[in-house]
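Worked Example 4.2. Read the sequence first, then its structure tokens.
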Amino acid sequence: MQSIYNENAARRALDWMLGWFLDPITYGNYPRSMRSLIGERLPKFTREQSLLVKGSYDFLGLNYYTTNYARIDEFNNSTLPLEQQLADYTRIDYYYRHLSYLRKAIKDGVNVKGYFAWSLLDNFEWSSGYTVRFGINYVDYKNGLKRYPKQSAVWFKSFLNKF
């Protein structure tokens, strides 16, 4: 029973973060969960407005690189040996799963034009500075910005060579 509640909570969260913007242009209305929770306070589309906005896009691009469901703890821990800092197996699992679903979407007819992995290098993140490392290549900030490929870079190279 708990898993059903969790699934419903996850769907509602997606409706509020993404559906609020995408549902009107794809379905002509706000997500059902929003309509039922907000009620009369949520503006309603007239039939004409719904028909006008539904499918009104020529191109839809999504920039997504984070989640609210799980967080990979990648804070800069300079006390770890370099080898350990390069072992980013959680990132490999993320890319593998994500690209598998992307491939399924393509097979199901989704017109995917591109995919950009975030990020090639560890870099400055506006809200976190240099304390997080999202790159597939490790940047040694203390030694002339020397770069080392993480395990995810090795995996990504192998993956790209297959296709």
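Now turn to a second chain, presented in exactly the same format:
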Amino acid sequence: MENEMSSKSAYGCIHRFKPFLAVIFLQFGFAGMDVLSKVALNEGVNNYVLVVYRHAIATVVIAPFAIILDKKVRPKMTFSIFTKLMLLSLLEPVIDQNLYYNGLKYTTATFAAALYNILPAITFLMACICGLEKVKLKSIHSQAKVVGTVATVAGAMLMTLVKGPVIELFWTKERNNQGAKGGGTNFEDTIKGSLMITVGCFSWAFFMILQAITLKTYPAELSLTAWICLLGTAQGTLVALVMEWGKTSIWSIHWDTKLLTALYSGIVCSGLAYYIQGVVMKDRGPVFVTAFSPLNMVIVAVMSSFILAEQMYLGRVIGAIVIVAGLYFVVWGKSKDYKSGSPPADGQMVQLQDKQTTDTGSDDNENSNPVANVPNVSSRGAATQDEQIHRQRDQLIV
């Protein structure tokens, strides 16, 4: 009995921590993509072609798993679902990623990763507009989310407009010239890059919201990922042909950084990321998925200071701190929403227990009937409902 209880508790702990481990894995994956993409772009890789190859590789990797594993759960394709898939593949694979790569050319990997911390706040705003989040201005939790959203926007503006003195790190002092080349961007380039990355954040936030909505009518995560990557490849190819018309040399691919970046970002950051986002989003919502982006910023800052010799500036560090502080106001308010969801479960449990007691009393009055096996059935049904309520409450508390 004790072994069963311990195994159940261990399974419960693993089940509770799975969403956290999944989104942390995503941030490590995105951090590697940020640094690798910056290296590839510095070497002259075309960003439009990189987007196409990235999603073509993701399609080849994910499609076989989707065909086999989603065979029983994949719903019938309808015009409404296909329209959503087309919009999803336009928002993230085409608009967001092309804007992000263009913005990355004008800034640094650390700056781009830090600015992307406004994504949870934008996602929260769009979730409110779409009715996926509710705001009650008299509630402290809702006030925290609103204040956090304003703070993230203020931090993003501070990062963009205020540079400040260079923060010297002991492992970059001997590479000042290289660091200036890797991290020194003029004010005009910073504004351009910031605008592109910010618009990309809005596109990605809308993608997250639409993905959460689409999963309600198309609950096959692998198939959804495969469709997004396939349609993103087709749309990205059209964009690349229009933007780089007549430049056939940019499509050539060799065993170099371009291929490595396309393979890594395609498999990890498109294929796996879209799928993991969808799985976690069904349980926790789009705001939770984007709430761990500051971890990406820290990882990129450390990696890029070693690999790219990028310099850090005081104004941008302060702006990043303001963004993170605002972000966790949003996360705190969101976590309280989950905790405040537990009382209804308790109330529902009380009602079920009262119903079970009533059923038991009525069954006692019918004990004279030898055919009356209803008490056993009703108690088993009530016990099953009780277990379901316990599981729901555990999920809400998490």
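Notes for the reader: The longest strand covers residues 166-167. The beta strands are 166-167, 312-313.
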